Amino acid sequence: MSDLEVRQLRYFVAVAEELHFGRAAGRLGMAQPPLSRTIRELERQLGVALFERTTRQVRLTAAGEVLLRDARTALEAVTAAAHRAREAGSASPRLRIALKADIDGGLLPQILDAYGTEDASLPAELVLGGFGEQSQALRDGLADVGLVLSPFDERGLDSEPLLTEPVLVALAAVDPLAARTRLCLDDLAGRKLPGGSPANHGRAVEHPRRSGEPKPASNLSEIFSLVETGGIVFFAPVSVARRYPRPGIAYRPVSDLPDSTLAVAWPQDTRSPAVAAFVRAACGVAAVQQAQAESLGQNTAP
């Protein structure tokens, strides 16, 4: 069997994620017939069927499910290799830090100050993204280290927890539930999270967005505007609730909602002294913050 080509894997992943040859062709910017020929040739090359095709639908076979998992990993590695090689050859090396704006537990300024005192430190560059995008940025080689909220996609990454804090629900101030002092997830039935998931199911699960689907609100300004209109709620760590008091929004504890953990994460195979320095700084700052909070008996209400 000859070696698989990157082009073949990209085409296969597009069809596997769209489960529609026409949509996959549009996503790839090509006509459908050559895409179909490439997939048939890939199946002949592997000696297995990757898709079950009928006139009504396209479904992955068991072999296709396995290839999709491994193909995504292989494509991520190829993409990351190019990005990291380009960065390594830069005349001005940097430490690229992936994070969601304002989702840092209030620790980022202190972490950057502590990191700047390390001998191995490099100039820091913030790589901002939406919720849940940081781990993928690390795998794709677009960032060297990241601040992420758990749970997150840990494939190929190492991490250390920094800060654990309660999570509150942000409701429209006019929502009848805002009159209560404490809620449970069942109370949120009928309300949705910004991405469309039912709020009473707890944390939203991130799924790949298909081409043509609208991008959900990702910055806090957009999210809070949706919450204020009613029907949409948002789960916010206490540190975010403290930073963003709004007259149109009420924050309430949810008794059966798990706490939020902020972690520092990095690719498992990294050997960068700058990454190690940032991780040391982040862990040190978090330890000091935790000790101060315990000594003050800090109130967790916003």
What does this protein structure show overall?
With 302 residues, the protein is an alpha+beta fold. The chain has three domains: 6-85, Arc Repressor Mutant, subunit A (Orthogonal Bundle); 92-165 and 260-296, D-Maltodextrin-Binding Protein, domain 2; 167-253, 3-Layer(aba) Sandwich (D-Maltodextrin-Binding Protein, domain 2), CATH 3.40.190. The chain has helices spanning 6-18, 21-28, 32-46, 62-88, 108-116, 134-139, 220-229, 238-243, 273-296, and strands at 51-53, 58-60, 95-99, 124-128, 145-150, 157-165, 167-172, 234-237, 249-253, 260-267. A five-stranded mixed β-sheet has the order 4-3-5-10-6. Strands 8-7-9 form a three-stranded antiparallel β-sheet. The chain is flat. The model is unreliable at 204-214 (pLDDT under 50).
Please state the average pLDDT score.
87
- Uncertain segments are 204-214
Query: Strand share of the residues?
Result: 15-25%
Main sheet characteristics: 5 strands, mixed
Question: What is the H-and-E element order?
Answer: HHHEEHEHEHEEEHEHEEH
In the CATH hierarchy, what is the architecture of the largest domain at level 2? 3-Layer(aba) Sandwich
Integer-rounded radius of gyration? 22 Å
What's the number of domains? 3
Tell how many strands the DSSP assignment holds: 10
Instruction: Provide the spatial order of strands within the biggest beta sheet.
Output: 4-3-5-10-6
- Give the overall silhouette: flat
CATH fold field value of the largest domain: D-Maltodextrin-Binding Protein, domain 2
By CATH reckoning, the class of the largest domain would read Alpha Beta
Alpha-beta content class: alpha+beta
